[in-house]
Sequence to fold (485 residues):
Amino acid sequence: MTPEEFRVAGHALIDWIADYRSGLAVRPVAATVAPGEIRAALPAVPPARPEPFADVLADLERIVVPGVTQTQSPSFFGWFPSNAALASVLGDLASSGLGALGITWASAPALTEVEEVVTEWLRELTGLPPGWRGAIHDTASTACLVALLAARERASGGSLHRGGLQAEERPLTVYASPQAHSSVGKATGLAGFGAANLRQVPVDPVTYQMLPDALAAMMAADVADGRRPAAVVVSIGTTGTTAIDPLARIAPIAAAYGAWVHIDAALAGSALLLPERQGMIDGIEGADSLCWNPHKWLGTVLDCSLLYVRDPGELVSVMSTNPSYLRSSVDGEVTQFKDWGIPLGRRFRALKLWFHLRLDGVDAIRARLRRDLANATWLEEAVAATPGWRVLAPVTLQTVCLRHEPSDMVGPDGEILDGEALDEYTLAWVAAVNGSGHAFVTPSKLDGRWMVRVSLGAEGTEREHVEALWKLLQDQVRDHVGIGE
Ligand SMILES: Cc1ncc(COP(=O)(O)O)c(C=O)c1O
Fold:
């Protein structure tokens, strides 16, 4: 494709994206295809000769769009807000258009230095301590793995330069709450600690926050048994209920053993842009790393995950490689992000964050986050005030965990009489909500029983959409059990 052909096709594509975004409210929110349907609609072999761009665009509309859950829809309340602000989409396009190769500072100095500037902007905006440094990774899962690798090496005194974990006499242990995201268990396994060395620290039964006293007891017992605590993963905003582990109480316990404290704030990190919400990370001075995803609620298009560390030297000592063809005369003066993580080649992801912050502005982003917090409180109050409905966990941010419990399924003290039947009923009405095409919510298990997470915060979600969702939930429930008006 020549630049002139690109110009024509590109204009058509931008028009298509603008139309798509402005028409989202009338599309079914959930993907409407059966397994294999999209594969079957595509040719088995690629075209030998160029096809017209109009044909590709038509197939995008006809084949691809129905196979995408419309996360940008104002009626999307599933998993977590996965916003893709159009300002950031432009930055992503600019990044692709530049096609910069980020392997060292010298390969694209701007790639490194714009990233240094935007991560510093966001450090300040989110109230992280001065001196902490950030880098952009693809996902929070990768960031957690990077943090745990650094933790492993600190605890083992640099085992990778010797015989690795296989040569260690004392097993290293990692601690997290059972509410921590599945990526924590995955990273623990991938970093070589082994599932048997991941301790699940009990949580408070009402708030779902990690219990610091239980953590202290588990760490002490492990040390007495000849193990070495290497890391504690603190969840600031768990996936299930957005519970906020008490960092200020956990960090000193970890410090007593020299254990690395990694904070997983994948979703909640966006709220740190609000000064009134920065209390969530009280105690941050005692932590070693924090990750959050602008590609969630903040809305910088996937993939954009920030990993901040107190001391980047701890990453460099683990991740640094220095083959001759990557060396330059300025190496001592510049940041080499290749030494702060796993990949060598990096995309110019900072551009999408830079465009997003510049074109939307921090004030408007903050106003949107506050709008979502207020909408969550509105829904929480509406649910709590309606007979038969329960809010199942404290609403700390923008997620409301709820369940409808028909009177014939609960006893006089609210105890569940037949859990299996309640689960079946919950899954049935949620499927009906999602099948309606009018909204999308995610069922999830809490304390072993199905419930519904309403995760607010799509960019276009206004109060009217939340009100429409609440009405839809009540209508579907009514259809399912025929309970009174
Ligand atoms: C608390 C938490 N941590 C980590 C993740 C994983 O995020 P990613 O998809 O960026 O790996 C999620 C995703 O939902 C999450 O909610």
About this structure: The domain at 94-360 is CATH 3.40.640.10 (Aspartate Aminotransferase; domain 2). The chain has a mean pLDDT of 95.
